[in-house]
Design a protein that fits this description.
Length: 385
């Protein structure tokens, strides 16, 4: 029996820190009762539930293990293929646990079709394809479905196609995540009926009417502020037709304002980064470390430190049906992050990682982990969305 006890540890219970207490772990789960096995004196350090990054792209063991090294014990992959890739990375002992959307649905001539997603099976042009397309993704092991919305008229998914995919996914008991990085795409994503909207507009904040629709429709936001800040910086420097100058700060201010409005309206906001290591991606975001930056940006947008922590623990567990994690309670999976400092006083303390356990097994970083076998053919940057 794998058992140990963390003694003299302050626990984040979802709202506050407890007084120093003991947390018992047995067979990968939080246990109740007397401590057994090794006793680890935390010396008053803070214990958090393992963090959940609600938007990553994982393509090998290096990126999966980088998540764990920084206390991210669950990664929600938002597009990777072929299905053998994620299957080869699931179930690693002492490393991050993964869920995945598999192949995303894209339109025939948008940015993603032209530059990023080269698998022709991703392109859906007719609503009559939706049921078969969703069935194929589920058969491949997709935990949820991803659709990519682009500006109206920009060659992305047509509105009726997106709606048909969402309806087909819901009929099969799968949530739908919609990529929407502009105001027009955000509106289209809401029109489709998607459950989770990932990214947020740069420039002008989201339409207040869309914020209201997010709340009344029970939608969930994953704004990926780390990525939005990188995109705004690129546009402000003159990229993608930008004129340079103040565009970076002005554009990102719109993203921050969108998150502030969503949060004030009561829309659940989850922490996600769009972490990726794709050579062909517009911006590479570091796995693991970026989630701590995302938490700081969420606090900048108006969330309290406790709310930011819930955005990376209990909220994604709830909204992605991960009932076995997200809090430190008996019976829950022992995904644990021990940090030096009080993250409720300073959210940056989450980055002061002392130890990480994934399902009760301490993560031991490898200096040069070998890459996992990569069954993907084609350019390595052709999978990022």
């Amino acid at each position: 029996m794998n058992a140990f006890a963390l003694v003299n540890v302050r626990v984040f219970d979802g709202w506050r820190l407890t007084e120093p207490t003991t947390v018992v772990v047995e067979n990968g789960l939080i246990a109740s009762g007397a401590a057994r096995g090794e006793r680890i004196d935390a010396r008053g350090a803070v214990l958090l539930p393992g963090l959940i990054d609600s938007h990553v792209h994982v393509r090998d063991a290096r990126s999966r293990d980088a998540l764990a090294r920084h206390g991210v014990t669950t990664g929600l992959d938002m597009a990777s293929w072929p299905p053998e890739l994620i299957a080869s990375l699931r179930g690693a002992t002492g490393s991050a646990d993964l869920r995945s959307a598999g192949l995303p649905a894209i339109g025939p001539d948008g940015l993603h079709a032209r530059m990023l997603v080269k698998d022709p099976e991703a392109v859906v042009t007719d609503a009559r394809q939706a049921e078969g397309w969703v069935s194929d993704r589920i058969a491949e092991g997709a935990d949820y479905v991803k659709i990519v919305m682009e500006e109206p008229g920009g060659g992305g998914l047509e509105a009726d196609v997106a709606k048909a995919i969402v309806d087909a996914a819901h009929a099969r008991g799968r949530r739908v995540v919609a990529h929407a990085a502009s105001a027009g795409a955000y509106t289209m994503a809401l029109d489709s009926g998607a459950d989770v909207i990932t990214h947020c507009p740069i420039g002008a904040p989201a339409d207040p009417a869309d914020v209201t629709r997010m709340r009344t429709g029970g939608r969930v936001a994953v704004p990926t502020l780390v990525m939005m800040k990188a995109v705004a910086r690129f546009i402000g420097a003159g990229g993608a037709g930008g004129a340079g100058g103040a565009g970076a700060s002005d554009g990102f201010a719109g993203s921050i304002a969108t998150v502030a409005a969503l949060h004030a309206a009561g829309v659940p906001v989850l922490a996600g980064t769009d972490a990726n290591a794709e050579p062909g991606a517009p911006f590479q975001v570091e796995h693991g470390a970026s989630l701590h930056q995302e938490l700081r940006l969420l606090v900048e947008a108006g969330l309290s430190p406790a709310e930011a922590l819930r955005a990376a623990t209990s909220l994604p567990a709830r909204h992605f049906s991960l009932a076995d994690r997200g809090s430190i309670e008996p019976g829950r999976r022992a995904d644990l992050l021990l940090v030096d400092g009080d993250p409720l006083a300073d959210i940056a303390a989450t980055g002061h990682v002392l130890r990480v356990w994934c399902a009760g097994v301490q993560h031991v970083p490898r200096l040069n982990p070998p890459p996992a076998p990569d069954p993907v053919t084609g350019p390595p940057g052709a999978r990022h969305t």
